[in-house]
Design brief:
With 112 residues, the chain is an all-alpha fold. The protein has a domain at 53-90. Helices cover 75% and strands 0% of the residues. Helix 2 runs antiparallel to helix 3.
Length: 112
């Protein structure tokens, strides 16, 4: 019983001091929040980006010089990067648990 109490006390001390060590002193700076988009806005923006990629691919087929094709390939890559950013923005908002937190929860469940 004393071992459990000692373990739990040391664990709580470690957990309570960890945020203090992680503070870099710049806590008063405001961090801009990412804007959340609705499902309809996401689908509309994604369909626009797909149409843009399709149009750029068609233009690449009709391009005459290699320089034009290279420029169009760069534009296609940029549009695909925009789509990736859009997907990450739309899919954010979940609850994330670190590996350490999961191990800690499992240990507490087992011990208590």
């Amino acid at each position: 019983m004393k071992l459990k109490l000692l373990f739990f006390a040391s664990l709580m001390a470690f957990v309570s001091y960890t945020p203090l060590m992680a503070n870099d002193g710049n806590s008063n700076k405001s961090v801009p929040e990412e804007e959340n988009i609705t499902r309809e806005e996401y689908e509309l923006a994604l369909s626009e980006l797909k149409a843009k990629v399709h149009a750029l691919k068609e233009a690449k087929k009709l391009a005459d010089t290699p320089a034009e094709k290279k420029a169009l390939r760069a534009k296609i890559r940029d549009v695909k990067k925009e789509a990736k950013v859009l997907k990450s923005k739309a899919l954010s908002g979940g609850v994330y648990l670190s590996t350490g937190a999961v191990i800690l929860i499992i240990l507490l469940i087992i011990l208590l």
